[in-house]
Amino acid sequence: MKKTSTFSFLIKYVLKKWYLLLASIFCATLVVAGTLYIPILTGHGLDMVAGAGDVDFEGLIAIIQMALAVIGVTIVSQTLLSLTNNHLASDVVYEIRKDVMAKIHKLPISYTDSHPAGDLVSRMIADVETLSDGLLMGFTQVFTGVLTILGTLVMMLIFNWKITLVVVLITPLSFFVAGFVSKKTYNLFKEQTKARSEQVSFINEMVGNQKVVMAFGKEADNMENFKTMNRTFRDASLKATFFSSLTNPSTRFVNSLVYAGVAIFGALSIVKSDALTIGELTIFLSYANQYTKPFNEISGVLTEFQNALACAERIKDLLAEKEITEKEDAKTTPSEHFENIDFKDISFSYTEGQRLIENFSLNVKRGRRIAIVGPTGCGKTTLINLLMRFYEVKSGEIFFDSESIRDYTREAYRENFGMVLQETWLRKGTIRDNITLGRDFTDEEVIKACRECHAHSFIERMPDGYDTIINEDGGNLSNGQKQLLCIARVMLINPPILILDEATSSIDTRTELKVQDAFAKLMKGKTSFIVAHRLSTIKNADIILVMKEGNIIEQGSHDELMQKGGFYKELYQSQWASEEEKQSV
Fold this sequence. Notes:
alpha/beta; Rossmann fold; 19 helices; ABC transporter transmembrane region fold; disordered C terminus; 10% strand
C-alpha cells in the first residue's frame, strides 16, 4: 500500500506537467517506431542478396535511402526525448522542493522541535536529488522500454505466432526475477535513506556546535559515534547495492535464453520448410534482442526507482504532516489598541500524561510589566510559547481584548509582539540587513534604535560600519554584540507588547545598566513580559509571577514578595548569596 500511495504521490506532480508528458510519449513513440522499422528494412535487404547471382540493386538502394531517413528521424526524436525528459524531471523536482519548503513554514513548532534539522535538510536536498535521478531514468527508459516491448510483440505476432509463443513463454522468468529482487531492494534502500538522514543530522549538529564540542573535549566520542553511523550507512548501502546489482545479470541470463530459443526454433523452421526466410529470421532475432533489451534496462531502472520511491515516501510523509490551521473567519489585521490579555484556566503539556501547566489564570492590564520567575522547568518559557501561539493550549483560552487569540491569524496576532530571546538569530549579510530584516526603515531610524540600545558605538568601529558583512549566526561577533543587534530590532519596530527572555544575559554589567535604561524607555506605555533568571534585573516589575511546577504560587511586587518571606525570597536570597560568593573568590 505504501508503494502505491507513494507512486500516486509522484504521478500527481508529473500530471501537473501534462504537456511535457505528452511530448515525451510522442517522442518515445517515434523512437520506438523507427527502431522497429529498421529490422524490417534489414531483413528485406538480406532477402534481396540471399539468392546466388540474384541481387536487386535498385531495391537495395531504395532500402538504404529509407533506412537513412528513418535513422535521421529516430536520432532527432531521441534527442528531443532526452531534452523533454530532463525538463520534466527538473520541473517535477522544482515543484516538490518548493512544496517542501512551503510545508516547513506551515508546520507547527512542535514538529520542528521534535525532528532534527539535519533530517529536514536531508529530505529536502539529498532525498529530492535521489528522486530526481530516479525520475529521469524512469522517464528516459521506461516509456521507450514499455513501448518497445509492446511493439516488438505485435510485430512478431504478425510475422510468426509460433516463434512469438516461445518468446512469451520464457518472458515471465524476467518478471519473477525482477519482482523478487525489487521487493528486497526497496526495504534495503529505505534503511539506507534512514541511515543517511541520521548521519546528516549528526554532522549538521556537530558542525553547528563545534565550539561546544571542543570546549568539552568530546571530539573522540563524537568521532566514535560518527564511525558507528558511517558503518551503519556503509552496510546498508552495500546490501542495497548488492541486491540491486543482481537484477541486471539475472534478467540478462533469461533474455539470452529468449534469444537462443528464437534462433534455434527459427533455424529449424528454415531447414524443415520454406515458411521462414533468412531475412525474416534476421528480423525475428533483431526483435528478440529489442524485446529483451528493455527488460535489462527497466530492471536497472527499477532498482534506482526503488531508491527514488524510498526517498519519495519520506518526502510524502513530510508533506502529509498536519499543518497549522487558522479559523475561516480569522482576522487578518492586528488590533491597534488593546487593553488587556487574559489567561483563563489554561492547561498544557508537551507530552500526554506529563502535566506541566494546569488551570492557569492571569489578567494583564495594558502597560504593566510582568516578570516571570521560577526554577528550571517550571513553565516560564512554556507560558511565552502559549502566549505567542507557538503551541496551542490543551484547554482553557487566552483572550486578547476579550477576543480569543484564535480569532486572529497568527501573522496578524504576532505583529503586536517584539521578542528578544536568550538565543540570538543572525544570518549572513550586513549588520543593517540583520537589524531591519528586509523591512523598509531609513538609516536615521536604524541608527536611532542602535543608539538607544548602545549598539551604535561598536557598529561604528566595525570595518564597514552598518554595511559590515557578518557570518552566519554572527560568528565574527561576541555574544553580547549579537544580542545588542537583536535588541535593536525590537527597538526599531516599537511593538505594543514586549517579550524579554533573559535578554541581557550575554551583556557585561556596565552595558546591561545602559540597556536596562533603554528598555525602561522602550517599555513605557507598553505591556511587557520578562522571563528572568537573575532576579536583580526585575525589581522594578509591576507584578512578579513566581511559578513552580506550572502553577503561580506567588505574585506581587518585589517588596511585597520579600515581605511575605515565601518561595521568591528563598530564591532571591540564594541567588544573592551565590553572587556574593562569586565576588569573594
